[in-house]
Amino acid sequence: MRSIGPTSFALAVIIVGGVFAIPTPAASALSAASTPATSVGWINISAVGDYGYSPANLQQVPTNSTITVTFTDKSQMAHSFTILGREGWVVPSNDTQSQIDQLAWGHSPPALENANVTGTGDTNVTTFQSPGPGWYEFVCTVAGHFQLGMYGFIAFGMNLPSNLTPPSRTGIGGNLNFSPLDAAILAGVLVVAVVLGVVLWRRRRARFEAPRRSR
Ligand SMILES: [Cu+2]
Q1: Is there a single domain that holds both residue 93 and residue 189?
Q2: 82 and 102 in contact (C-beta within 8 Å)?
Q3: Residue 140 Cα, ligand 1 centroid: separation in angstroms?
Q4: How many domains does the chain have?
């Protein structure tokens, strides 16, 4: 053990310990998120100019509750607020309008919510039943609006995945089958492998160099 040295050994312990600490806060945040302290069964959302929603991200919406949606039109044209029924799914950005219509009205699974507004100043108040924990994409089903960027994401009983970054839609496409927690664990395993490799290499090198050097 003399060849490793106490400093590099302590450094390796700190690195390995730090890496394994990463998944812990994420896991506790998720479990805390699934039981929100304050449940408010309402959403205020607006359609804004340039084919957008404000806010475009909704998180920690109560699960299995009656949610009242106040949908206000702050743009100058008609829009919808349609929460697609497919959980954990990002609609491919090159989907055609008929594919959007199929997702919204194909009833497999059915949309969670649909509200419409007709123009500037219009407000539509609707309710829907929220599902269990999960996240969904919502879109405007007016022809061409999704393709112009009119969509957002809503999470029930949890936060949205951190790698979901609308409106650029980078990070993931299609199904999210690789969670941030998975990524953190994989990164931890890779760093541990690298650290072990470096430590073993240093031990091996020190063993060969020891007779020649006086340390
Ligand atoms: Cu629209």
Answers
A1: no
A2: no
A3: 5
A4: 2
Q: How far apart are the first and last CA of the chain?
A: 14
How many angstroms does the Cα of residue 101 sit away from the middle of ligand 1? 13
Tell how far the Cα of 20 is from the centroid of ligand 1, in angstroms: 45
At 48-75, the pLDDT tens digits run: 998 999 999 999 999 999 999 999 999 9
Tell me if 214 is assigned to some domain.
no
Q: Do residues 193 and 93 both lie within one domain?
A: no
Instruction: For residue 146, tell me if it sits in a domain.
Output: yes
Task: Please name the residues in contact with 183: beta carbons below 8 A apart, sequence gap of 6 or more.
Answer: 163
Q: Is residue 162 part of a domain?
A: no
Distance in Å, CA 84 to ligand 1 centroid: 15
Residue 184 CA, ligand 1 centroid: distance in Å: 37
Domain with residue 135: its CATH number is 2.60.40.420
CA of residue 44 to ligand 1 center, whole Å: 16
Residue 11 lies in domain: 6-29+181-209
For the chain, list residues with pLDDT below 70: 1-40, 165-183, 185-186, 210-215
- Ligand 1 centroid vs 56 CA: distance in angstroms? 13
Helix, strand, coil tally for the chain in percent (to 5)? 30, 25, 40
Residue 141 CA to ligand 1 center (angstroms) comes to 7
Q: How many CA atoms lie within 13 A of 125 on its CB side?
A: 4
Q: Is residue 163 included in any domain, yes or no?
A: no
